[in-house]
Design a protein that fits this description.
Layout (H helix, E strand, L loop, with lengths): L1 E5 L3 E3 L7 E2 L3 E5 L2 E6 L3 H5 L3 E4 L4 E4 L1 E6 L6 E2 L4 E2 L1 H6 L3 E6 L12 H14 L9 E3 L2 E3 L6 H9 L4 E4 L10 H10 L3 E5 L13 H7 L3 E3 L11 H9 L3 E5 L4 H13 L6 E4 L12 H12 L4 H7 L2 H7 L14 E5 L9 H7 L4 E7 L2 E5 L13 E5 L11
Parallel strand pairs: 1-6, 2-7, 8-11, 11-12, 13-14, 14-15, 15-16, 16-17, 17-18
Antiparallel strand pairs: 1-4, 2-3, 4-5, 6-22, 7-19, 9-10, 19-20, 20-21
Helix pairs in contact: 6-7, 9-10, 9-12
The site of zinc ion has 6 residues, from loops.
Amino acid sequence: MKVAIVNLGQIVSGDWRNPCAAGDTIVAEDGRITAVGVASAANVESADVVIDAGGMTAIPGLIDSHVHITFGDYTPRQRTVGFLESYLHGGTTTAISASEVHVPGRPSDPEGVKALALAAQRCFATYRPGGIRVIAGSVILEPGLTQQDFVEVAQRGVRLAKAGFGGVKSSYDYVPLVGDAKAAGLITTCHTGGSSIPGSGAITGDHLLAMHPHVSFHINGGPTAMPDRDFERVIRESEIALQVCTAGNLRTTLLCARLADELGAFDRFLIATDTPTGSGIMPLGMLYTIAHCASLTDLAPERVICAATGNNARVYGLDSGYLVAGKSADIVLIDAPDGGTQAAALAAIKHGDIAAIGAVITAGIPRFVGRSRNTPGTTRMARVVKSSVMQDFAPTAH
Ligand SMILES: [Zn+2]
């Protein structure tokens, strides 16, 4: 399928160093972006589907790097089906598993956690609820796992490993496990802050610096934050990515955002939700944390959007997250919410309002054009002005 989006008011690139792209058109074909900014009339006319954005803003699809998936589009923690499809209506086009710890009766022995991660990875390899991409399969680090185990799961397609929910005596027991997982080529992540479930201990700056995982999960607290003084230490003394989550401590989210900016560490500042959890299912969580960071700090809204898109893509090695030719065509149209005080999406976000979503495209396929079933309505209207495919792109009613 070839899709052209015309009449864009603004384009956010996903690259925080150069967050705004010039032009008003994006073209995608066979799942990949082929042109950003300008396209010839012939190029647009040859598209199977042409979307008139009506002056809205295009951003890369949001990448939530902390989603508690299990199997299927179901969360046992909140006993709800269809949550991933609902997240797509909040602009999230990729959900990265924070490990499958919510699977009821999850195993804790080495063979069991390996099998669980591999099964999750396989079950979401091609399954896209509502069109969302799910990167699943994060092996839970448990005592007894060896480097050979990590090599084995990595060879079979598992990409992630997670410290923080294993049966260790001390959090320092994760140090050799994280080292072995990294050596096998896995992307390592670590719970940070006070324990979120009974029995798992607090993980603070000393533990993070000893382990040096690729990503500090919810460095702002999940949901309980580590000491304020540890944020600057982790930024200065490591290369650990700083993931802030909606279901955490907002004050330390803002503390971390300001420090990452001041200390030249914005490359590794990541926005995620850490949901579904006890805090609930939050289809608009990414939009809320973007609005909080942009409206309560001096950061420009387009830069904050890059922390929710390109920064996550870079740290996790994904081919999406940027509106650049060659990247996966995951594109979201956003606008100022109808009835608000601001004229365009970025001004609304800076004002503290969440963006309204007018269309979501994943893997080059429009999943809906018009109104998100979860955000407020858009001020402008995105419309399909030409289509030669058997699909109406209307949001499904729920
Ligand atoms: Zn979590």
